[in-house]
Amino acid sequence: MNVKDIIYIVLFSLLTIVLGLFPPIMVPSIGVPVTAQSMGCMLAGSILGAKRGLISLFIYTLLIVIGFPVLAGGKGGLDVFLTPSGGFILAWPLAAGLIGYLYEKNKKSLTIIKEACFIVLGGIILVYAIGILWVVIFEELSLYQTILGTLFFLPGDIVKVVLVIFVARLIRRSYPRAF
Questions:
Q1: For residue 95, with 0-12 CB atoms within 10 Å meaning exposed, 13-18 middle and 19 or more buried, which class applies?
Q2: Average pLDDT rounded to a whole number, residues 75-81
Q3: What tens digit of pLDDT does each residue of 22-36 get?
Q4: Cα 68 from Cα 47, distance rounded (Å)
Q5: Which residues are 33's β-sheet partners?
Q6: pTM higher than 0.90, yes or no?
Q7: Which of 55, 78, 140, 160 is the most exposed place for a label (fewest CB within 10 A)?
């Protein structure tokens, strides 16, 4: 890993923090807020690739564990992971890694459809799967209730996927050697 890689990793950790400046919207049925920060893992994976994307979101998660108030609404600390949101947050580094892996394996044949599938698979399906199980455990809701509650996130997450594709393509086109 070189200095450029470290700078990109830190940059995307910071970008995820900045996305937390948008105020969270609480979903009362499951106790998890809608935030812009879930775009952080999508962007990191699609732009940085698997290893750097995963490390970037891992560092971000580590900052939360240490207690820095880097989550939307100024939250942080280990106790955040004992709430319904914990599973979604823990899934972000894995999502960035999966998205990055899929991008790397298909970089010569990327289409908008493939990109959308990769981001949906990592940034929505994987994150929801881990997050839903976490909510079921910590909120003692049924799987059915939790899945129904998370449907509220879907329209916003689809918009995030479209934005991420646009931004990732723009960055890769503008700086082809950088990434």
A1: buried
A2: 94
A3: 888 887 778 788 899
A4: 25
A5: 26
A6: yes
A7: 140
Q: What is the pLDDT of residues 93-106, one digit of tens each?
A: 999 999 999 999 99
Q: Give per-residue pLDDT as tens, 122-170.
A: 999 999 999 999 999 988 889 999 999 899 899 999 999 999 999 999 9
Q: H/E/C letters for each residue in the chain?
A: CCHHHHHHHHHHHHHHHHHCCCCCEEECCCCEEECCCHHHHHHHHHHHCHHHHHHHHHHHHHHHHHCCCCECCCECCHHHHHCCCHHHHHHHHHHHHHHHHHHHHCHHHCCHHHHHHHHHHHHHHHHHHHHHHHHHHHHCCCHHHHHHHHHHHHHHHHHHHHHHHHHHHHHHHHCCCCC
Task: Label residue 85 exposed, middle or buried (CB < 10 Å: 0-12, 13-18, 19+).
Answer: buried
Looking up tokens 């892996």 gives 101
List the structure tokens of 133. Answer: 């199980």
Residue for token pair 């732009």: 47
